[in-house]
Write a structure and sequence with these properties.
Rossmann fold; eight-stranded mixed sheet; 37% helix; 339 residues; single chain; 12 helices
Length: 339
């Protein structure tokens, strides 16, 4: 299949599994799609803290459906997933406006709107889970002090120190990347313009091509260039600012998890481990300078310094949609339950 498209999609709401529904968040620019997963009606315990999921580049709220269904139906956790502008069923800018004029900050503002909507609805801080460039946005809004969260999971995320190495990995994986971009008139989806390219970038080798194609058909029609460029050069965030916007450090062993995928060709295990180490260093610096109360000694899972690092064996970059999605969901549950 070939996935380059130049015009806005015709909105066609897809069927959602039982227990999931779709609503929209109003913004000054347009409506943003929000998929909601409620615990089963048979659940009679106290309302649990919500998890808020943010997709990455080319994605949409629906990439989280497997995890949301599992977490809500098996663990009674209310879940929310947002589609940024130009993704999913959210409002769509024109090709020129999205590709060349939509900044990282504009997309971050969408994320802030979605989180504040859920905070008001749930009367609680969310546990924020961000994937890839959505993990980058998650760090950006915390660094800027836009919101506070009860926990942060960076899932195959853009590292806190910037994404130049990520795109070097992409070039090594696909040496024809640049030439193909020119052949495709600099269309931002050029690196993901066929089933084979999507599979190589996002999934493990065992993922069936039919499932890769079904995933690719739901990718955004075109993507902002300024989003990845705004995360590429230099440090993305000050990790100390991000840490300070995560509540509860003084009462628990771990408030941040970096979740990596073993077969990720973009965000390598080395890069993800480096991000975890950066956050551990930032947390320890805040404690040492008495800008943050001390955390309990150690993580019950054996990690140190309040930051958990985990690897999902066998999974590719889109670990929440790969064959091993359940293992990744279990890691999120384990992190959530110790908050």
């Amino acid at each position: 299949m070939f996935y380059l498209r130049w015009t806005k999609p015709i909105a066609e709401p897809s069927h959602l599994p039982s227990g999931l529904s779709r609503t929209f968040v109003d913004t000054e620019d347009g409506k943003l799609e929000l998929i909601v997963a409620e615990p089963p009606s048979s659940y009679i315990g106290p309302r649990k803290r919500p998890i808020f999921f943010q997709h990455g580049g080319m994605g949409q709220a629906g990439v989280w459906i497997e995890w949301m269904t599992y977490l809500s139906q098996r663990h009674n956790i209310p879940c929310y997933a947002l589609s940024l502008r130009g993704h999913g069923l959210s409002w769509y800018p024109s090709f020129i406006s999205m590709v060349y004029l939509t900044t990282k900050r504009a997309l971050a503002n969408d994320l802030v709107k979605g989180i504040k909507y859920v905070e008001q609805k749930e009367k609680a801080e969310v546990v924020l889970v961000g994937h890839s460039s959505g993990g980058g946005l998650s760090q950006v809004i915390l660094d800027a002090g836009d919101v506070n969260v009860a926990g942060l999971v960076l899932t195959a995320s853009i590292p806190c120190y910037g994404s130049l190495g990520v795109y070097m990995n992409w070039w090594k994986m696909d040496p024809w990347f640049s030439l193909r971009m020119w052949r495709h008139f600099l269309h931002p989806n050029s690196p993901l313009s066929s089933t084979g390219l999507v599979k190589r970038a996002f999934f493990c080798d065992a993922k069936p091509d039919s499932e890769v194609d079904a995933f690719a058909q739901k990718m955004s029609y075109y993507e902002s260039f300024l989003w990845p460029l705004g995360m590429m050069l230099g440090r993305l965030v000050d990790v100390r600012n991000v840490v300070k916007r995560i509540s509860g450090w003084e009462s628990r062993g771990c408030s941040l998890m970096v979740l990596a995928a073993e077969k990720d060709r973009l965000m390598s295990i080395k890069q993800m481990k480096g991000a975890a180490e950066h956050y551990r260093g930032g947390l320890m610096d805040l404690i040492r300078t008495k800008k943050l109360d001390s955390v309990e000694s150690g993580d019950p899972e054996g990690d140190v310094s309040g930051v958990r690092f985990r690897v999902v064996a066998g999974a590719g970059h889109h670990l929440q949609n790969d064959i091993q999605w359940h293992e990744g969901a279990c890691e999120v549950v384990g992190f959530y339950e110790q908050l």
